[in-house]
């Protein structure tokens, strides 16, 4: 078999299961998965091997109606990832069906999808009856000429192998784009920051998770093989700092322990993680913060 390689963009509404699918395809956790919407901010590439094919997945932010600069930059990143990819996979939640958000994505696909390979993956199929699945599949395929349709459960793995094999066979022939043992092209510093942000998102509630960001300020490789990692959590208001720290610092301590454990499992070695919380009222308007998240600041312009 000839070697194949290419980029596959996963698009869909927030919480459609893109990050869960990416992590299952790659076989490791490279994208944060939480119960909250809009948690993926940057285009995260995960690399999977299937036979002689190397599939480079682009996990894009969920597509939604943007309100703030950060929202606009995230949506621009999502469509940018789709436009640059060899194959686009639209994920639709089975039980939600054709929502207003899916309608908007279908309209955009009509503009950028012409002449490119776009597949449909109906996710969370274990939550609806087979008759409803067939009706949803017909409705979506009547709206857009998908190259193939897959019924999957990204969480449980149903149908995922079939999707991966089809993707592998549909990529263009050519040399692999990354070393065989590489699973993501994000710098470790950003992966570490995303892991900590996931723990914060799971721990905190309401709007606060979208008002904070995490940056890896320093990474020191130590002689004993461990790593010392210093991270800063930026929040927009003084009141948020108190919520993050918690009573007697318990909240940030628990978050730090959970993030450290996951980092140690990911890296396969000891990690010394130190978190600092800083108030930056206008971090959502600072170009430097967007660079750290892998987003384009100018994309946030109205």
UniProtKB/TrEMBL annotation:
Q: What is its main location?
A: cytoplasm
What Gene3D superfamilies does this protein map onto?
3.30.300.20, P-loop containing nucleotide triphosphate hydrolases
Region G4: start and end of each range? 123-126
Its subcellular locations are: Cytoplasm; Cell membrane
State the UniProt keywords alphabetically: Cell membrane, Cytoplasm, GTP-binding, Membrane, Nucleotide-binding, Ribosome biogenesis, RNA-binding, rRNA-binding
Single Gene Ontology BP annotation: ribosomal small subunit assembly
Membrane protein topology class: Peripheral membrane protein
Name a GO molecular-function annotation: GTP binding
Question: Is GTP-binding set as a keyword in this record?
Answer: yes
- Residue intervals of the Era-type G domain: 4-173
Q: Which family does it belong to?
A: Belongs to the TRAFAC class TrmE-Era-EngA-EngB-Septin-like GTPase superfamily. Era GTPase family.
Its biological function? An essential GTPase that binds both GDP and GTP, with rapid nucleotide exchange. Plays a role in 16S rRNA processing and 30S ribosomal subunit biogenesis and possibly also in cell cycle regulation and energy metabolism.
Record-given protein name: GTPase Era
């Amino acid at each position: 078999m000839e070697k194949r390689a290419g980029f596959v963009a996963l698009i869909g509404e927030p919480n459609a299961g893109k990050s869960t699918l990416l992590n299952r395809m790659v076989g490791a956790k490279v994208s944060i998965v939480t119960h909250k919407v809009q948690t993926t901010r940057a285009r995260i590439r995960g690399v999977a091997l299937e036979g002689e094919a190397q599939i480079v997945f682009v996990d894009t932010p969920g597509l939604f109606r943007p309100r703030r600069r950060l929202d606009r930059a995230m949506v621009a990143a999502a469509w940018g990832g789709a436009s640059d990819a060899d194959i686009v996979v639209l994920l639709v939640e089975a039980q939600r069906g054709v929502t207003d958000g899916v309608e908007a994505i279908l309209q955009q696909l009509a503009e950028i999808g012409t002449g490119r390979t776009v597949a449909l993956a109906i996710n969370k199929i274990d939550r609806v009856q087979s008759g409803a699945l067939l009706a949803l599949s017909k409705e979506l395929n009547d709206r857009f000429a998908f190259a193939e349709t897959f019924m999957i459960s990204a969480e449980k793995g149903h149908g995922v192998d079939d999707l991966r094999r089809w993707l592998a066979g549909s990529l263009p022939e050519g040399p692999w784009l990354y070393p065989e043992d590489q699973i993501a092209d994000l710098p470790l510093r950003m992966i570490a920051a995303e892991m900590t942000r996931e723990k914060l998102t799971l721990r905190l509630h309401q709007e606060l998770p979208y008002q904070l960001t995490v940056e890896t300020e320093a990474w020191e490789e130590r002689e004993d093989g461990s790593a010392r990692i210093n991270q800063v959590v930026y929040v927009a208001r003084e009141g948020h700092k108190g919520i993050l720290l918690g009573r007697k610092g318990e909240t940030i301590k628990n978050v730090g322990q959970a993030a450290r454990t996951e980092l140690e499992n990911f890296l396969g070695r000891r990690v010394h993680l130190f978190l600092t919380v800083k108030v930056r009222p206008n971090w959502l308007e600072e170009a430097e913060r967007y660079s750290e998240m892998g987003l384009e600041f100018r994309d946030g312009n109205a």
